[in-house]
């Protein structure tokens, strides 16, 4: 499953590394947008694969990660 940024902003923190397994509902990263911090959660469980780095500036709808079900 592909996850896209809901808003333009900056990736403040990645909570997991690529290749790690996550569960549905785990907070994957923190996005800062308009001085707000937004938690991006896993919609499903699986193996995480980041498409951006910590500190990256992303646009709305930009792909930030993929969660591949096991």
From TrEMBL:
| Domain Lipoyl-binding stretches | 3-65
Keywords, sorted A to Z: Biotin
Pfam families reported in the protein's UniProt record: Biotin_lipoyl
Asked whether the UniProt record includes Cytoplasm among its keywords, one would answer no
What PANTHER family does the entry give?
Answer: OXALOACETATE DECARBOXYLASE ALPHA CHAIN
Q: What is this protein called?
A: Acetyl-CoA carboxylase biotin carboxyl carrier protein subunit
């Amino acid at each position: 499953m592909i996850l896209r940024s809901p808003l333009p902003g900056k990736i403040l923190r990645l909570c997991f590394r690529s290749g790690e397994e996550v569960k549905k509902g785990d907070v994957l990263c923190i996005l800062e947008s308009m001085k707000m911090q937004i938690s991006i959660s896993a919609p499903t469980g699986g193996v995480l694969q980041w498409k951006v780095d910590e500190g990256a500036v992303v646009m709305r709808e930009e792909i930030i990660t993929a969660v591949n079900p096991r």
